[in-house]
Design a protein that fits this description.
alpha/beta; EC 5.3.1.1; single chain; 250 residues; triose-phosphate isomerase activity; cytoplasm; 16% strand; 8-stranded parallel beta sheet; gluconeogenesis
């Protein structure tokens, strides 16, 4: 049975004071659950603070992005080796906001994904369709295209050390979550694509849902056969909401 993961993506949010309060607030729920893993992905500037606060706790931590180089003249970037040194476990790859605002492509996401694995980090590969793509019935085509560089070029076996996050772009930060049926349908399709390469990997890979996940809808989402947890945005910044989502995973 696949273990659930509840992972927070803080995006461009936080202060030293708010990070301390948030982590203090969510620790009891994370410590109480025995059936789910809990993680937070923070802006780079807070990773040291997070690592110190969460050392020797059940909460894992990670980053929201990484560069495709390990060192060199790349001002403003952060390498996988740096993230590893600060105890990161996970790194988000290809979030729709990175694709939209920074021009990241499926190929560049696959490059980052591979580099993370080379340095012992777990990529969380974010995929999902826009509203226009959904309304024109192209969701499956988009998912297939976004997964292709990993499945066809890097190999399905790499998914044994990765997480997939399905985040319909139209549901991120909008309050419009996919219904449990809509989310399950796409999660099942993702698993089907992987099973075409390896049934074993398809059964084992954790596929998270993201897009306006809250305590109010987490239970029904997590009850779906192919949904293995959540990548949580806005609600991950609110102790009561994130606590409720952690409890729903249990």
């Amino acid at each position: 049975m696949r273990r659930k993961i509840v992972m927070g993506n803080w995006k461009l949010n936080g202060t030293k004071e708010s990070v301390e309060a948030l982590l203090t607030g969510i620790l009891p729920a994370a410590q109480a659950t025995t059936t789910a893993d809990v993680a937070v992905c923070a802006p780079d500037i807070f990773i040291d603070q997070v690592s110190r606060k969460l050392a020797d706790t059940p909460i894992a931590w990670g980053a929201e992005n990484n560069d495709v180089h390990t060192s060199g003249a790349y001002t403003g970037e952060t390498s996988p080796t740096m993230l590893k040194e600060f105890g990161c476990t996970y790194v988000l790859v290809g979030h729709s906001e990175r694709r939209q605002y920074h021009g990241e492509s499926d190929a560049s996401c696959a490059h980052k994904y591979a580099l993370l694995q080379e340095h012992g980090l777990i990529p969380v590969l974010c995929i999902g369709e826009t509203l226009e793509e959904r309304e024109s019935d192209r969701t499956n085509d988009v998912i297939r295209k976004q997964l292709a560089p990993v499945l066809n070029d890097l190999g399905v076996e790499t998914l044994k050390n990765a997480v997939i996050a399905y985040e319909p772009v139209w549901a991120i930060g909008t309050g419009k979550a996919a219904t449990k049926e809509m989310a399950q349908e796409v999660h099942a399709f993702i698993r089907q694509l992987i099973a075409e390469k390896s049934a074993e990997v398809a059964q084992g890979v954790q596929v998270l849902y993201g897009g306006s996940v809250k305590g109010a809808n987490a239970v029904e989402l997590f009850a779906q056969e192919d949904i293995d947890g959540a990548l949580v945005g806005g609600a991950a910044l609110i102790v009561e909401e994130f606590d409720a989502i952690i409890k729903a995973a249990g």
